[in-house]
Design goal:
The protein is built from two helices and five strands, in the order βααββββ. It has helices at 8-15, 19-38; strands at residues 3-6, 50-52, 59-64, 68-75, 84-92. A five-stranded mixed sheet has the order 1-5-4-3-2. The chain is globular, with a radius of gyration of 13 Å.
């Protein structure tokens, strides 16, 4: 099982989400993100809409259910052979 940590800003952002948004995040992480991390070659399914964030090297954005999104990066391995994910921000994408 991949290991995770959260940055303080992620924790603050998470507290501002509705209960339904938190449930959807948990569902997508446990039902799709984690299984895809564990797949050979770490291939993410297209429905997760994962992309690199332009201005930040090594930071990725996961988008699901409309405009719900979270940013994350890979961190140093904590358990041998398992990916370590650092959750950075979570919320809804803002449109200009």
């Amino acid at each position: 099982m991949p290991t995770f940590e959260t940055l303080p800003r992620f924790t603050t952002d998470l507290q501002h989400l509705t209960a339904a948004q938190r449930r959807r995040f948990r569902h997508v992480v446990l039902g799709a993100f984690v299984p895809d991390l564990r797949s050979p070659g770490c291939q993410f399914r297209p429905g997760l809409r994962i992309k690199g964030v332009r201005r930040a090297s090594g930071v990725f954005e996961l988008t699901w259910h409309g405009d719900d999104r979270a940013t994350w990066s890979y961190g140093p391995e904590k358990v041998q052979g398992e990916q370590h994910i650092v959750w950075r921000r979570i919320g809804q994408r803002t449109r200009a």
